Amino acid sequence: VQLVESGGGLVQPGGSLRLSCAASRRTLNYYTMGWFRQAPGKEREAVSCISNSDGATYYADPVKGRFTISRDNAANTVYLQMNSLKPEDTAVYYCGAGEDCLVGMDYWGKGTLVTVSS
């Protein structure tokens, strides 16, 4: 399984970004997919996940109402639309694939940096 994130960058507070995670063929059919982030000096945390079986989604409390996860199985890509960004959203964002988003993922991308600053 290969995962490649893109879409990170510098954005002002209140702005938007869309992250993409390109996965190797059929990964989205077999695994739950998730976005995680790690800020400097902090542990990696789950941000949002989407199930491969029924499309059920999970959002961490700090991002509810602002972030939206989606997937395109035909394109083997998972997206994270991030709106109303805050400085505290600054982190390296990682894409993961596995059986259970909150227990642990089996495969990881290398990450993409999101910086929210004026």
Written account of the structure:
β5 and β6 form a beta hairpin. Strands 2, 4, 5, 6, 9, 10 and 11 form a seven-stranded mixed beta sheet that branches. The model has no long low-confidence stretch (mean pLDDT 96). The protein has one helix and eleven strands, in the order βββαββββββββ. The protein has one helix at 27-30, and strands at residues 3-6, 9-11, 17-23, 32-38, 45-50, 57-59, 67-72, 77-82, 91-98, 107-108, 112-116. The radius of gyration is 13 Å and the shape is globular. With 118 residues, it is mainly beta.
List the helices and strands and how they pair.
Blueprint: E1 3-6, E2 9-11, E3 17-23, H1 27-30, E4 32-38, E5 45-50, E6 57-59, E7 67-72, E8 77-82, E9 91-98, E10 107-108, E11 112-116
Parallel strand pairs: 2-11
Antiparallel strand pairs: 1-3, 3-8, 4-5, 4-9, 5-6, 7-8, 9-10, 9-11
Helix content: under 10%
Question: Quaternary state, please?
Answer: single chain
Structural class: mainly beta
Unreliable runs, pLDDT <50, ≥5 residues? none
Percent in strands: over 45%
Provide the succession of SSEs: EEEHEEEEEEEE
Q: Report, as a whole number of angstroms, the end-to-end distance.
A: 37 Å
The major pleated sheet works out as:
7 strands, mixed
The total beta strand count reads: 11
Radius of gyration: 13 Å
* Count, helices: 1
Taking all residues together, what is the mean pLDDT? 96
Shape label? globular
